[in-house]
UniProtKB/TrEMBL annotation:
This is Amino acid transporter transmembrane domain-containing protein. Its main location: membrane. One of its GO terms (cellular component) is membrane. The keyword Transmembrane helix applies. It is a multi-pass membrane protein. It comes from the Eukaryota. Keywords: Amino-acid transport, Membrane, Transmembrane, Transmembrane helix, Transport. Residues 42-426 form the Amino acid transporter transmembrane domain.
Length: 434
């Protein structure tokens, strides 16, 4: 338990200077709280299940057939292992919350709070930096996703610019998506966007249904020529599987938002099983239809002009458009707080947000390889946030029995191996494309 008067005793939504002292990484939890929290009574069990499922089920759904193609059918065993590990580390986060007084008037209400409880101020700063990097790369992946899918939806579109330059294809639509998103990044209150982003669950169901439709109407389902196991593709496969189960940075917010957070373990189990089944079904359907030709975004395999293709792409595009501003909000807020108070205001905020958006556009156009980028995020950042940090924090905070400690150490070794091999493989793939 934190000592009275420590920084951990400060309230969750902290205005002004207090928030600056705690660090901008807490804004991740503050923003997600706009979606998750019922300030009067707290979220019910089923609303918490919906919220957590929405967090777990993300853009990883689009790349999971590609992950299966990389590792082969036997990699589904590792998919199950990754899901089980991420469920367990999610439970470790809940235990850390309880150890820090995570219910009621809580001293530990965000992921950086756990870092401070376990490792002091260096822990808070480290996990904050990792979360900033993860959020920035996720924002880049959103723009790549928008550009790729809009190019699939509207092929051959081009716009002439002064000087005879023609902007076409993915670069054109990446820029168009950024222009549409830009005004939303100037807003300070993003609660409306937070609620819009909940359609991600609908998009997940629509994508799976579209694959069933495509298999029945067009290609059929063929498993005989599929790859059984590929050792060379395993690092990429594992990294992308970790992307599927990322979201641990928001788990503390779901925990504190619950009316009865003693039921968090059941909520986590229900949401993990539900999302795992949807991920596995999508992976199997996509791989059985397209085999080793499946692309890093399975929507790019769907035939142009078909109704189910348009449904899949349109629903897929909504979530990144709605969530981009939520994702970069902590980054822009942190940069804004580095300026003097006299420099703050709507104009300064707009300038900072615009700069961040422009930088992500440049990055998206420079490294337009969704699968490789998601693999890098999964191996280097998601593994750290979803596996390494929860395990290390619990070993520092909790009273761990010897048998469980041995299991946690084994998970840590597994996570480090995935992080090292996956990061090397994804970086090598990105560099080799230039």
């Amino acid at each position: 338990m934190a000592a009275a008067g420590s920084p951990l005793d400060e309230p969750f939504l902290v205005p002004g200077k207090d928030r600056e002292q705690r660090g901008g990484a807490d804004d991740v939890a503050n923003i997600e709280a706009q979606l998750l929290l019922h300030h009067d009574t707290g979220a019910s069990f089923w609303r918490s299940c919906l919220n957590l499922s929405n967090i777990i089920s993300g853009v990883g759904l689009l790349s999971v057939p590609y992950a299966l193609a990389q590792g082969g059918w036997l990699s589904l065993v590792l998919f199950a292992v990754v899901g089980a590990v991420c469920y367990y580390t999610g439970e470790l986060i809940a235990r850390c919350m309880r150890a820090g007084g995570g219910g009621g008037v809580s001293a530990v209400r965000s992921y950086p709070d756990i870092g401070q409880l376990a490792f002091g101020q260096p822990g808070r700063k480290t996990i904050g930096a990792i979360m900033y990097a993860e959020l920035y790369l996720v924002a880049v992946s959103f723009l790549i996703l928008e550009g790729d899918n809009l190019d699939k939806l509207l092929p051959g579109t081009a716009v002439g610019l002064p000087g005879g330059y023609v902007l076409r294809g993915k670069q054109l639509f990446t820029l168009v998506a950024a222009v549409v998103i830009l005004p939303t990044t100037w807003l300070r209150d993003l609660s409306v966007l937070a609620y819009v982003s909940a359609v991600g669950l609908v998009a997940s169901v629509a994508l799976t249904a579209s694959l069933v439709w495509a298999g029945v109407a067009e290609h059929g389902f063929h498993a005989k020529d599929a790859n059984v196991f590929s050792l060379a593709g395993l690092p990429t496969s594992l990294s992308l599987y970790f992307v599927c189960f990322s979201g641990h940075g928001v788990f503390p917010t779901v925990y504190t938002s619950m009316r009865d957070n003693n039921g968090f373990t059941k909520v986590l189990l229900f949401s993990s099983v539900l999302c795992s089944l949807n991920y596995a079904l999508t992976a199997v359907l996509g791989y059985m239809i397209y085999g080793d030709d499946v692309k890093s975004l399975v929507t790019l395999n769907l035939p142009t002009g078909k109704v189910y293709t348009r449904i899949a792409i349109l629903t897929t595009l909504i979530t990144p458009l709605a969530k981009y501003a939520l994702v970069i909000q902590p980054i822009t807020t942190g940069m804004e707080e580095k300026l003097s108070s006299s420099s703050r205001g709507s104009l300064a905020r707009a300038a900072i947000s615009t700069g961040v958006v422009v930088s992500t556009v440049v990055a998206a156009c420079t490294v337009p390889f969704f699968g490789y980028l998601m693999s890098f995020i999964g191996s280097s950042l998601n593994v750290t946030v979803a596996v390494l940090f929860p395990c290390l924090s619990y070993l520092m905070i909790g009273r761990v029995r010897r048998a469980e400690a041995a299991g946690i150490v084994a998970i840590l070794v597994f996570g480090v191996c995935v992080a090292v091999l996956g990061t090397y493989t994804s970086l090598h793939q990105i560099v080799s494309t230039f």
